[in-house]
Amino acid sequence: MKHYVFQPKGVCSRKITIDLTDDGVIEEVAFEGGCHGNTQGVAALVKGMDAKEAIRRLSGIRCGMRPTSCPDQLAKALTEALAVIPA
Q: CB of 81 within 8 A of CB of 4?
């Protein structure tokens, strides 16, 4: 199990915590702050998904006029986690 904590930028959530299996499957995601229902829904939907697939699906999603969103920040967090956490 790999654990990663990410500090999002440009969104309401303040922290994203991710647990990945050794083969890159999302075990758990938790957002601190943000729109609770939306972040809880995103976290539930990606649970059990391959991190690379979640990145593909979530990258580039915007929140209103903002250039990013909590799902987009999760994609950035997963990208960093895959790069930083040794296989």
A: yes
